[in-house]
UniProtKB/TrEMBL annotation, chain A:
InterPro entries reported in the protein's UniProt record: BPD_transp_1_N, MetI-like, MetI-like_sf
Membrane topology: Multi-pass membrane protein
Record PANTHER family: DIPEPTIDE TRANSPORT SYSTEM PERMEASE PROTEIN DPPB-RELATED
A Pfam family hit: BPD_transp_1_N
Native species: Micromonospora gifhornensis
Domain named ABC transmembrane type-1: residues: 95-304
UniProt similarity note: Belongs to the binding-protein-dependent transport system permease family.
Keyword Lipid metabolism part of the UniProt annotation: no
Cell compartments where the protein resides: Cell membrane
Key words, A-Z: Cell membrane, Membrane, Transmembrane, Transmembrane helix, Transport
Record CDD domains: TM_PBP2
Protein's name in the database: Peptide ABC transporter permease
Annotated TM spans: 12-30, 97-122, 134-155, 175-195, 239-265, 285-311
UniProtKB/TrEMBL annotation, chain B:
Predominant location: membrane
UniProt protein name: Peptide ABC transporter permease
TM annotation in the entry: 32-53, 94-118, 138-164, 202-223, 256-280
Organism: Micromonospora gifhornensis
Topology relative to the membrane: Multi-pass membrane protein
Listed PANTHER family: D,D-DIPEPTIDE TRANSPORT SYSTEM PERMEASE PROTEIN DDPC-RELATED, OLIGOPEPTIDE TRANSPORT SYSTEM PERMEASE PROTEIN APPC
Any Pfam family the entry gives: BPD_transp_1
Residue ranges annotated for the ABC transmembrane type-1 domain, each copy included: 90-279
Keywords: Cell membrane, Membrane, Transmembrane, Transmembrane helix, Transport
Annotated family: Belongs to the binding-protein-dependent transport system permease family.
Subcellular location: Cell membrane
């Protein structure tokens, strides 16, 4: 077990390192490099040189890379161009909101996707099954901001059931604060779940149909186990594993969706931060946000892999 | 967004006896016919945009009008016609979607085939593909688009460059199956070079998978372009569906002017759904298990 965990963690670290290294060099090879972005037009050459020196951008590329990596390991992502504040602090301020949003969407997708997928598999060809297939295919065509705006206009602005922006009502205390938190979370989470649910439930359905045809299910039937027990206990256990892997692979898409939905709902997470930073051309914040999101996604993916190993009886650790 | 709708490519089919009838059968399916029709209308809209509507620019007197005979899709807070914006946006979406998916296809097919046939390349290619598939693509594209000045060309390059891993994975898995087939061994025994085997023997066997990939990658590219434009990273000189949504977001008219967000959203939905359906049905139509051999 320990060996598996270590090797999986090592793979995650390697992935992040490759990503950071390749993007570092890619960004400096691109035509519009950060130096030209940062230097304002009306500066004297002396001022430009001084500014470049402050940020260490006058040194050779290789030296920049080494010092960048050294700083990164210590958790230093540089200084924001616009807010004179360390990028790490700015992002850590916002990251919990994104984790809450994406995490809730992840859990809810699984919680709702399992019953839908299983029921569709058991009632193959019936209306629920057909509806799920249509929904699963069209989910590919759903654009997160469109879904988010639709929810915002209908449930937020028209019906007034949910707040149309923000993450919490600052005047609430205690239990009220938690309720306000959940209330603000509903629409952003829903916009992510609607996009993720179709493919997830569809995968679960396909696995379930395959599993229900296996010999051990027939054996369970011969032993007199009820249909309910066969499907929900014996079948689901085996069908859920590939669906879990799919969710792990979809984490990147989930985070991308979170960036978009946060922008629509002015939700104070990393996604909204990226949107603001793009508007202000705050380049270190954008790069830092990508690194933090990449680290989060890669390690969350490693965690789902470990969970897979724990849940799968065929892998003995 | 980029849901893996194709988990398993259909097994390679034997050279079909009559190619024409299989195309005919494919196009006769109602969903396919409808999808192809939608795609055709979109292409015509993109090509003839200047004849359909004037390029929206400047401010007009009719501000925030709901849809009417004069303005089919209503007007935005500057008084610009939303219908004209959607029509002109079709150009950007189609051009970027198609060009980016062709880049992804060229890269993905080359890498996928090389990995399938040449063992040493496979190890490296698989690591790179895995790393790229593990990363959050949208934040990655945002980072690059923010540094270069966004234009139709740079957006196409960025989106195309990050869409190839999915194509490479599909082509590689198909290529591996074909590499193991007896006729490849036969070609090797006859003294064919690796280059010849890959280009003359394996490549033709993955062509139909490439057609599917173009459609699916193009639909993902359209969504990516819309996402980047919505975040303010679109080409400032070209109309785009994502930019219409961004304008509504920036001017705070989302809750009032439903027409400003509904119509570009429908355009994205229709285009992507049509491309996805056409691609998936094409994949199904090649599957001998469904066609009864």
């Amino acid at each position: 077990m320990l060996r598996f965990v270590l090797s999986r963690a090592l793979k995650a670290v390697l992935t992040v390192w490759i990503a950071i290294t390749s993007t570092f060099f890619l960004l400096r090879l691109l035509p519009g490099d950060p130096t030209t972005l940062m230097v304002e037009g009306d500066m004297t050459p002396e001022m430009q040189a001084a500014l470049l020196k402050t940020y260490g951008l006058d040194r050779p590329l290789w030296e920049q890379y080494v010092s960048y990596l050294r700083e990164l390991i210590q958790g230093n992502l540089g200084i924001s161009f616009r807010q004179i504040q360390p990028v790490t602090d700015i992002i850590l301020d916002r990251l919990p909101w994104t984790l809450l949003l994406a995490g809730s969407a992840f859990v809810l997708t699984i919680a709702v996707g399992i019953p839908i997928g299983v029921t569709a598999a058991v009632n193959r060809g019936k209306w629920l099954d057909r509806a799920l297939q249509g929904f699963g295919i069209s989910a590919n065509a759903l654009f997160v901001p469109s879904v988010a705006i639709l929810l915002l206009v209908f449930f937020g602005a028209q019906l007034g059931w949910f707040p149309i922006g923000g993450a919490i009502d600052p005047d609430t205390r205690g239990l009220g604060a938690y309720l306000s938190l959940a209330h603000h979370l509903v629409l952003p989470v829903l916009s992510l779940v609607l996009v993720q649910l179709g493919p997830y439930a569809l995968t679960l359905r396909t696995n379930m149909i395959e599993v229900l045809g296996e010999d051990y299910i027939r054996a369970a039937q011969a032993r007199g186990l009820s249909a309910r027990r066969r499907v929900w206990k014996h079948g689901l256990r085996n069908a859920i594993l590939p669906a879990l892997t799919l969710m792990g692979l979809q984490l990147g898409t989930l985070v991308g969706g979170a960036v978009l939905t946060e922008t629509v709902f002015a939700y104070p997470g990393v996604g909204r931060l990226i949107y603001e930073a793009v508007g202000q051309q705050d380049y270190p914040v954008i790069q830092g946000a990508f690194i933090m999101l990449a680290v989060t996604v890669v390690f969350a993916n490693a965690l789902t892999d470990m969970l897979y190993a724990v849940l799968n009886p065929r892998i003995r650790l | 967004m980029s849901a893996p709708v194709l988990t398993e490519p259909a097994p390679p089919s034997a050279p079909s006896a009559s190619k024409r009838s299989s195309w005919y059968g494919y196009l006769r399916q109602p969903t396919v016919a409808l999808s192809v029709l939608v795609l055709l209308v979109m292409v015509l809209m993109a090509v003839f945009a200047p004849l359909i509507a004037d390029e929206p620019s400047g401010a007009g007197p009719d501000v925030l009008q709901s849809p009417s005979g004069a303005h089919w899709f209503g007007t935005d807070d500057l008084g610009q016609d939303v219908f004209a914006q959607v029509v002109w946006g079709t150009r950007t979406s189609l051009v970027i979607g198609l060009a980016a998916s062709l880049i992804a296809l060229a890269l993905g097919t080359t890498i996928g085939l090389a990995a399938a046939y040449f063992r040493p390349i496979d190890a490296v290619a698989t690591v790179i593909t895995d790393v790229m598939l593990a990363l959050p693509t949208l934040p990655l594209m945002i980072m690059l688009a923010a540094v270069v000045s966004p234009s139709v060309v740079t957006l196409t390059l960025i989106i195309g460059f990050f869409a190839w891993p999915e194509v490479a994975r599909l082509i590689r898995s198909q290529g591996l199956v074909i590499s193991a087939m007896p006729y490849i061994d036969g070609a090797r025994v006859l003294g064919a070079t690796g280059w010849r085997i890959v280009t003359r023997e394996i490549l033709p066997a993955v062509v139909s998978l490439m057609i599917v990939s173009v459609l699916l990658t193009a639909s993902r590219a359209v969504i990516s372009e819309a996402g980047l434009s919505f975040l303010g990273l679109g080409d400032p000189d070209a109309w785009s569906w994502g930019r219409i949504l961004l304008n509504a977001q920036r001017s705070g008219t989302i809750a009032i002017a439903w027409w400003q967000t509904l119509f570009p959203s429908l355009a994205i939905l229709l285009l992507v759904l049509a491309a996805t359906l056409a691609g998936m049905r094409f994949n199904d139509s090649r599957d001998p298990r469904r066609n009864g051999g």
